[in-house]
Amino acid sequence: LGAVSLVQKQGQKAIDALRRIGIDSVIGVMVKGLEGWREEGLPIESLGTTSAQECAALMKSKEITILDVRDDMEWEEKHIPGALHTYVGYLEANLPTLPKDAHIVVHCSVGHRSALAASILRRQGFTGVFNMLGGLTAWEKLGLPLEKSK
Asked: Is the pTM of this model over 0.85?
């Protein structure tokens, strides 16, 4: 395979993976990856991260809002008490009605979808966004409280 064909296959694979989580309007891919982006001198931002343990401590002091971006079935099975819920695939069209400087901890099952969701929130102007590493899996392993939807 030629280099262009290989890039096209990798790009299509990435687009297909995004469609599986509800992101249907991909308008481009980074052919040279993040390294190529950096080499071009283009801007790079990073997202804040937090742990399940830190998140639980912050919840007690009422300093944060938890946003669960898993799908509806996962949410109904179990979720963090008091969390907001919007599936990551619908997040851009259903942004939380919170101040842009609110402290928001985003989580999914392990942290992949929530990283994407945190990026979406940042792109929409939210400044206090954090991805909970390990997601609900880490939360549950620590024995932290969970509830089920009615």
From this structure: no
Active site residues: 108
Cβ atoms within 10 Å, residue 50: 19
The pLDDT profile of the chain, 150 residues, written as one tens digit per residue, is: 555 566 678 778 888 888 887 777 777 777 777 788 888 888 777 788 999 999 999 998 888 999 999 999 999 999 999 999 999 999 999 999 999 999 999 999 998 899 999 999 999 999 999 999 999 999 999 999 999 876
